[in-house]
Write a structure and sequence with these properties.
The complex is a heterodimer. By secondary structure, chain A is α/β, with parallel strands linked by helices. Chain A is built from eleven helices and 14 strands. Chain A has helices at 3-8, 52-59, 81-87, 103-113, 118-131, 147-158, 177-192, 204-210, 228-233, 277-286, 300-311; strands at residues 13-21, 27-36, 41-45, 67-72, 75-76, 88-91, 165-169, 196-200, 213-218, 221-227, 237-245, 258-263, 266-272, 290-296. The model of chain B is unreliable at 1-9 (pLDDT under 50). The chains are: A alpha/beta, B mainly alpha. The interface between A and B is large, with 56 and 42 residues.
């Protein structure tokens, strides 16, 4: 194997039998093992309290593991904490910067903590604050910024050491759709340029849209670890909401399709994922019904997520 | 798009010792600078109050009461209390700076910026201690400057004066850091200054010579670390002291090493910081 390929085989992240029991007795992680390849855009999903943030906390040195190991680009969190931290950029779930400092100072200081001199840190801070569209607030105290701006600042701060592994713990929580899209655009660009990205989010549409591989964690255990495509292919039934005209109250009987009336303008069609949609439209047309628009009833990943988590005994998840 | 399109390293780079040393130096400078900027940003809370308090001490104890006390070891009472009051403000401000700053970073969770960085624990500790010592020295210089409005001073042993004040500030910065690590509420950082620091300071020979005390109070006073700092600094300024200056150095250095070891151990374990 050529040298470059051999080193490429070193995963960006390799978690081995990681366990965490808090002093309260809560077992947050029960032997989690996971691999994330270099360059991947990886989703780590799970219901609240599943262990996602504990796992991220251990990787970013904020939580001490009870046992097990994690290696980042081959470096162990136990043997070379400093080396591991140099590879990682962390966007935590909670706002955790000094509200009395300015975004520019926060970014330059964090770069300093990584040993990056101010002469390098200053233009870099300007670059990322501009890319994330908060440069106009760069010299105002952060307490005067909106929630969305604070979230973007945390991404800019995480980029100050230009990490090879960027970990985002619910980065778009509480952010409006326009800003969320601009954040997706930025993060996708970072990933295309070679940075491995691990994303946790409660917006499953976001994970489905952005991520290539996925792990679902529940009750401190990995219940699914596969590619997004393979996971979505497991969904054998799909439901569509159809906006229609010409429906006069009698539902037509169609082979392989369960049709339900929601109101006179909306029908729900549930069918195997292999079912031919053209045949559905043809049958409806034959009954004088015209489909004016259609959409998925639920997000596909959301459907699978709920099923997996319910199967693992967490009925309250969603 | 960003400039991450640069050629990617294929596996984790290793950092040679000189590179790490340079990075640690930058990190240390960053924390110290941040601490100094914080101190200067809130100067009405950090620099003005000790100046006002000590002016009152000089007026009331030095001028009004001191004029009736008479000379102490050949110096006016005002001259006698100046070193103690300077050391008192240095100690209190070094302690107060590090407890409020480090606990504030815990409370606001931005201590995570430090914990999730590659900085070793000793850099974090040294950075915070440097900031606190600098505040102690700045306040000490302000108080000394104010004292010169009330009396004249000839510094007898400048080296002793400077090293003593640095050691005193370092000891109480380290103690304050340990306090802040254990603290869970703001109340927890107010308890030690009120119930430990203030009594030790007032009983540490700031306003009197320990030789004026009878047994067993004199012997009991010798267990007070502040007594050594005050008297060593008084020796540095006036050339007189109640304890041999070498004993004071031994005691102060012992405290510095012991407290630094405890603080580092706590930091490495992540006590009060990592779950």
């Amino acid at each position: 194997m050529p040298a470059a390929d051999a080193s490429r085989a070193v995963p960006a992240l390799e978690v081995e039998n990681l366990r965490k029991t808090y002093s309260s007795g809560v077992q947050a992680l029960k032997g989690v093992s996971l691999k994330v390849a270099q360059g991947d855009f990886f989703a780590l999903l799970g219901p609240n309290g599943a262990g996602k943030s504990t796992l991220i906390g251990i990787l970013s040195s904020l939580v001490n593991p009870t046992s097990g190991d994690a290696r980042v680009f081959g470096l162990s969190i136990h043997a070379d904490r400093g080396g591991v931290m140099r590879q990682i950029g962390l966007v935590p779930q909670e706002i955790n910067f000094n509200q009395f400092e300015t975004p520019f100072d926060i970014c330059v200081n964090v770069a300093g903590f990584y040993g990056i001199p101010r002469t390098v840190a200053k233009p870099r801070a300007e670059k990322y604050l501009k890319e994330l569209r908060i440069w106009d607030k760069a010299f105002q105290p952060t307490r005067m910024m909106s929630g969305g701006m604070k979230r973007r600042l945390m991404i800019a701060r995480a980029m100050m050491n230009e990490p090879r592994l960027l970990i985002l713990d619910e980065p778009t929580a509480g952010v409006d759709i326009e800003i969320r899209r601009s954040m997706w655009h930025f993060i996708t660009g970072i990933n295309r340029a070679g940075t491995t990205v691990i994303l946790t989010t409660h917006y499953l549409e976001e994970a489905e849209k952005l991520c290539r591989n996925i792990a679902i964690i529940d009750h401190g255990e990995i219940v699914e670890d596969t590619s997004m495509r393979r996971l979505l292919s497991k969904l054998d039934v799909q439901s569509f909401l159809l906006d229609v005209t010409g429906f006069e109250g009698t539902l037509p009987q169609l082979d392989g399709v369960k049709l339900t009336r929601l109101d006179d303008q909306t029908l729900e069609a549930e069918m195997p994922s292999t079912h031919d949609l053209n045949a559905l439209f043809a049958a409806l047309t034959a009954h004088g019904i015209t489909v004016t628009s259609m959409r998925n009833k639920t997000n596909r990943l959301e459907e699978l997520f709920v099923r997996l988590v319910e199967r693992n005994g967490n009925g309250a998840a969603a | 798009m960003n400039d991450l399109a640069r050629p990617r390293l294929t596996d984790a780079p290793t950092y040679a010792a000189p590179v790490r040393a340079r990075a640690n130096f930058v990190a240390l400078g960053t924390i110290t600078r941040r601490e100094v900027r914080r101190m200067l940003r809130i100067w009405t809370q950090t620099l003005v109050p000790p100046a006002i308090t000590m002016t009152l001490y000089f007026v009331i104890f030095g001028k009004v009461i001191g004029s009736r006390v008479g000379p102490m070891h050949g110096f006016s009472y005002m001259q006698y209390i100046v070193p103690g009051l300077v050391m008192m403000s240095v100690i209190n401000n070094a302690y107060g700076n590090i407890t409020s700053s480090f606990f504030g970073s815990k409370f606001g969770r931005y201590v995570e910026e430090l914990l999730a960085s590659p900085m070793p624990s000793w850099v974090v500790l040294t950075g915070y201690v440097s900031g606190a010592v600098l505040r102690g020295l700045l306040v000490g210089a302000i108080v000394l400057g104010i004292a010169l409005f009330f009396t004249s001073l000839h510094i007898a042993h400048p080296f002793v004066a400077i090293t003593t004040v640095i050691l005193g500030a370092t000891i109480f910065s380290l103690a304050g850091f340990i306090n802040a690590m254990f603290a869970k509420r703001f109340d927890d950082i107010a308890i030690v200054p009120t119930f430990v620091l203030a009594p030790l300071t007032y009983l540490g020979g700031v306003f009197y010579s320990v030789n004026m005390l009878g047994s067993p109070w004199r012997e009991a006073s010798l267990a007070n670390p502040i007594l050594y700092m005050v008297n060593a600094f008084r020796f540095g300024i006036l050339g007189i002291g109640d304890v041999p200056v070498w004993v004071a150095y031994v005691v102060m250095l012992a405290f510095v090493f012991a407290l630094a070891a405890v603080a580092l151990w706590l930091l490495r374990k992540g006590v009060g910081l990592r779950s």
